TrEMBL record:
This is Uncharacterized protein. Residues 307-329, 342-378 are annotated as: Disordered. It comes from the Bacteria. Residues 313-328 have a biased composition (Low complexity). The lineage of its organism: Bacteria, Bacillati, Actinomycetota, Actinomycetes, Kitasatosporales.
Length: 378
């Protein structure tokens, strides 16, 4: 048996063995022909298959003869065995989660076939070593840590190290595209001592993550608000001047069609904006300014029309409101959005002392709007 916990490229089937303080000895079948490894473990008495795809040998006192039997069976099925002194990842993840604030759940995922780990790439929100390893190095298994409040983390053994780990984050719930995001947080290297690692996560990683989430939401809401404002300005100018932006006179017969275009474009932008605005609003706490507080209350009603409570923050219960029309929703958003943006800028998370705050990009010019030159009727 090779004294390594990361399988080498040779061999199409491998079994990784790791010591578990909770479960004795854990075996993880992996490789392009991982079913061969499964067969070897199933034919070896003493190993119990678990729902996550791993096997456990709980009676470590009888491990020696069972491991010899496993080695013989693995050889017959062309399976390579790997092992080392590193504690099983699931135990380390559980100990790490116990040291973090709040309630965390831990789930080990086995990427038995090498291509399975590729599914992680679009989901990870990381600008550090973790995403690079997932993209280019074999990661046979990892642990997902979730706190039930929207934070999802990925923990993996650091390739090339026998006692270090990598921790990074999945994207926050309202986003589905992480490509070239300037606010992406950086994964952190953790030591083997789970208590020390938890202190690093609390003091460094989580503050940087919260800062990144806040800045990304704020940037998304600012950009969408800017596009809605530009749409409104264009439509208002057309109404007042009776001309399109290129100077062409507006045919009164097409006024209704032009207004419908404005509402359709605004509706698309509004649907994109809503989840980001709601998430940003949820990060706000009680506001001292009475006018801003009233604006945030109205935005809560607008963004949660079917919620039991119509006040922000939600203390009680009241009848659910009917969803407003697009025109009414856009009017209400334009009225109260400045308060949300103002408070979000004023309450940016500080982040870790050594982490520089990402700059908020300026709101870019909106893409050309169909309102700028609506087709004339023939």
């Amino acid at each position: 048996m090779d004294d390594r916990t990361t399988p080498r490229s040779k061999g199409q089937a491998q079994i990784i063995l790791a010591v578990s303080p909770a479960d004795g000895l854990v075996a993880v079948p992996v490789g392009e022909q991982y079913p061969w490894a499964n067969t070897a473990l199933q034919l070896t008495p003493g190993f119990e298959q678990r729902p996550d795809g791993t096997y456990a040998l709980r009676d470590v006192d009888t491990a020696a003869p069972i491991l010899r039997a496993l080695a013989d069976t693995a050889r017959r099925h062309r399976v390579h065995l790997f092992g080392g002194p590193r504690t099983y990842l699931g135990d380390y993840a559980a100990a790490l989660a116990d040291g973090l604030p709040g309630q965390w759940t831990v789930k080990v995922e086995v990427y038995a076939h090498p291509v399975w780990q590729e599914d992680l790439v679009p989901l990870l929100w990381d600008a550090g070593e973790l995403i690079d390893c997932v993209e280019h190095i074999r990661i046979p298994y990892a642990a997902q840590l979730t706190n039930g409040a929207g934070i999802e983390l990925l923990l993996a053994e650091r390739p090339g190290s026998t006692d270090e780990y990598l921790l990074g984050s999945f994207t926050s719930a309202t986003f589905d595209d992480n490509y070239a995001d300037p606010h992406t947080p950086t994964s952190i290297v953790l030591p083997s001592d789970a208590a020390h690692a938890a202190g690093l996560v609390i003091g460094t990683f989580l503050p940087a993550y919260e800062q990144a989430v806040h800045e990304r939401l704020l940037a998304a809401v600012e950009a969408a608000h800017g596009r809605l404002e530009e749409l409104h300005t264009t439509w208002t100018a057309i109404q007042h001047s009776g001309r399109y932006s290129d100077g062409t006179r507006l045919d009164p017969a097409t006024l209704g069609h032009t207004q419908q275009q404005y509402l359709e474009e605004g509706s698309v932008e509004w649907r994109r904006l809503c989840p980001h605005a709601a998430a940003l609003l949820s990060r706000m706490r009680s506001v001292a300014d009475a006018e801003d507080s009233a604006s945030l209350d109205r935005l809560h009603q607008l963004l949660h029309p079917d919620a039991a409570s119509s006040t922000w923050p939600a203390p009680g219960s009241s009848p659910a409101a009917l969803p407003p029309s697009t025109a009414e929703a856009l009017r209400r958003w334009r009225t109260d959005a400045p308060a949300l943006l103002r408070q979000a800028r004023a309450t940016r998370p500080v982040g870790p002392a050594t982490t520089a705050r990402p700059a908020i990009p300026a709101v870019g010019k909106a893409p050309p709007s169909a309102l700028e030159r609506a087709p004339r009727s023939r």
